[in-house]
Amino acid sequence: MARIGYARVSSKEQHLDRQLVALKGADKLFTDKLSGANTNRPELQKLLAYIREGDIVMVTELDRLGRNNQDLTQIMNTIQNKGATLDVLNLPSMTGIIDPNLRQLMTNLIIELYKYQAESERKRIIERQQQGIALAKQKGKYQGRKPQYTQDNPRLQHAFNLYRGGMSDADIARTTGIKRSTFIRYRKNYKIKRNN
Questions:
Q1: Domain tally, the chain
Q2: How far apart are CA 25 and CA 59, in angstroms?
Q3: pLDDT tens sequence across 117-164
Q4: What is the per-residue pLDDT for 62?
Q5: What is the structure's pLDDT at 21?
Q6: Which residue, 20, 29, 165, 191, is the most exposed by fewest CB within 10 angstroms?
Q7: 42-50 vs 69-81: helix axis angle to the nearest 10?
Q8: % of the chain exceeding 90 in pLDDT
Q9: Contact (CB, 8 A) for 88 and 62
Q10: How far is CA 196 from the centre of its chain?
Q11: Which residues are catalytic?
Q12: How confident is the model at residue 29 (pLDDT cuts 50, 70, 90)?
């Protein structure tokens, strides 16, 4: 049996210190500095692959695992299906309840409430971002995200030449390192056609 900690913050600028202190009793630790909006986080995936029957997965708060109900349910099911348990450190302790079925029921109810709260907070964050962008647009201050490539970027021009020569989008992505979806967006924006 191992105690496995997972800590997450949403960006590289944020610090994990507070969570790491709370998880100091873990035998193994996984950390991500990525948004909890989806489960495509390398260390979370490593954690889910690593856990074994009898292990205890520790997080400081439920929203460190994820911010939407569906993802949280999926992660918790994976942990449970592997025979491990989840210990959310900021949840009230149910150890005083003697009946194990009642204790599990109470724990599940509390977790459902926290899942709802995590998803609601995620929705509020998105709303605030959209309101901020709308306000900045009204004031003429919103620039949007800077384009990844300028039209005269040598790598992008090389990709356009490969496309004109008949190479597929997937092969261009592999050859140039430009993501396939990004390349398609740029070639459509600049109306790049194949040579006949």
A1: 2
A2: 11
A3: 777 887 888 888 889 888 888 888 777 777 788 888 989 999 999 999
A4: 85
A5: 95
A6: 191
A7: 30
A8: 37
A9: yes
A10: 43
A11: 10
A12: very high
Q: DSSP of 142-191, one letter per residue? A: ---SPPSS-TT-HHHHHHHHHHHTT--HHHHHHHH---HHHHHHHHHHTT
Distance of alpha carbon 194 from alpha carbon 196, whole angstroms? 6
Instruction: Provide the pLDDT for residue 122.
Output: 76
**Would the pTM count as exceeding 0.90?**
no
CA distance linking residue 25 with residue 192, whole number of Å = 57
Specify whether 100 is located in the same domain as 149.
Answer: no
Q: Cβ of 142: how many Cβ atoms within 10 Å?
A: 12
On whether the CB atoms of residues 154 and 160 are closer than 8 A, the answer is no
The whole-number pLDDT of residue 126 equals 83
State residue 164's pLDDT score: 92
Which CATH number goes with the domain that contains 94?
A: 3.40.50.1390
CA distances from 147 to 77, 118, 184 (A): 39, 32, 14
Domain that holds residue 86: 3-121
Task: Examine the domain organization and report whether 153 and 107 are in the same domain.
Answer: no
Q: Distances in Å between the alpha carbon of 76 and those of 99, 105, 150? A: 22, 15, 43
Give the whole-angstrom CA distance, residue 61 versus residue 146: 34
Closest CA to 62 of 97, 19, 11, 105: 19
18-20-26 Cα angle (round to 5): 145
